[in-house]
């Protein structure tokens, strides 16, 4: 059996790719890696972080988006509790609603960050609690 090496990417449906693209850029600092243009219209993007440690794809699928409202399919890894505090400050500066820092089952997390379609993104430390 072949080994797996992690995720290649995660794809989310969005109702408006332009609106979501701007939110993910502003909120998470992700940048466009690939654009998916069909019949001259932007229908999706693949985004990555500056360190190229992850890829998140957004696909304009308005009919599928409603079913994802309130769901939390992604927990992004943050290396330390201090880095999570930096994220909390960043979200506060942008006036993005979130839970604040809480203890999780393994480390610490910030939940309640929702994109324009109500899909929840969580930030979770890789550092374990003592």
TrEMBL record:
Pfam families: Glyoxalase. Residues 6-126 form the VOC domain. Gene3D superfamilies: 2,3-Dihydroxybiphenyl 1,2-Dioxygenase, domain 1. SUPFAM superfamilies: Glyoxalase/Bleomycin resistance protein/Dihydroxybiphenyl dioxygenase (SSF54593). InterPro entries: Glyas_Bleomycin-R_OHBP_Dase, Glyas_Fos-R_dOase_dom, VOC_core. This is VOC family protein.
């Amino acid at each position: 059996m072949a080994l797996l090496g992690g995720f290649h990417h995660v794809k989310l449906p969005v109702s408006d790719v332009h609106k979501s693209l701007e939110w993910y850029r502003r909120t998470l600092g992700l940048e466009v890696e690939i654009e998916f243009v069909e019949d001259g219209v932007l229908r999706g993007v693949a985004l990555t972080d500056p360190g190229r440690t992850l890829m998140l794809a957004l696909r304009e699928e308005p009919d599928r988006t409603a079913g994802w409202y309130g769901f939390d399919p992604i927990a992004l890894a943050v290396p330390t509790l201090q880095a999570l505090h930096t994220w909390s400050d960043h979200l506060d500066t942008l006036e993005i609603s979130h839970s604040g820092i809480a203890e999780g089952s393994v480390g610490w997390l910030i939940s309640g960050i929702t994109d324009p379609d109500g899909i929840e993104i969580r930030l979770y430390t890789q550092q374990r609690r003592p």
